Amino acid sequence: MSKTKLKIGEFSKMMQVTVKTLRHYEQKELLLPDEVDEWTGYRYYSVGQMQKLNAIRDLQRLGFSLDEIRDLYEDDSHDPSLEQLDRKIEETERQLRVLIDRRAKLLNWRNSRNEIKNMEKFSIQSLPEIIVASHREVIPSYDAMGEMCCTVIGPEMQRLGCKCPPPGYSFTIEHCKEYRPTDIDIEYCEQVEEMGKDSSIIQFKRLEEVPTAICMKHYGPYDRFYESYTELFKYIEDNNYKIVGAPRCCYVDGIWNQEDPEKWLSIIQVPVERV
Prior knowledge:
alpha+beta, 7 helices, 3-stranded antiparallel β-sheet, Multidrug-efflux Transporter Regulator, Chain: A, Domain 2, Multidrug-efflux Transporter 1 Regulator Bmrr, Chain A, 40% helix, 9-stranded antiparallel β-sheet, single chain
């Protein structure tokens, strides 16, 4: 009966193993070619060596090193003894404990990174008692707020001689009891240094300190506030807070200095206390 001989490339392709790996096995004297042509140096493998390679792979998957596998074949025992299996089980259990400990540390690290990420988006602050110049009006839409600030509130505050402490703090409070896309009852407040004399447009008032407020950065146009409110209220609930005051929307960057609405930055501030 003729014996099938496979060149190293053919054997590599059939067994789905690289030639580099086969040469490494040969150097370890673990899987020697069945025949080497003395003239060409071509290496040939037999069908039986396919079975041996599969056995080597199985033992590797069970955690046996190439040296341990070679020793098994040198002792003419292709299967490990009970004592060897017990040692390998003990070794595997030690590795498992190490992996479980590593997993716990990685989870803690990941969770701490998530907390840091949340802290970058969320912050817990106290809002001090301040004096504000206030203007309340029903506006047709959120888009009208920018024009109202530029053409109504700003000129009137300037006429009244209002001085605003740096870096400046302004926000809005909605007084609607439900969502309205139009006819929005909104109050604009801007911090000023001292009480002034009320006019038909501007009223001055003192706002009490808010001991604890959870603040969240919102990037993007105002018609996507609902996305941030969803995330913010979940954060409040998950961290055992309750809402004790009307949310403020503080505008940092907007149409007045950013043409791209995606670059608008607002900060939602919600007064809270621990449950």
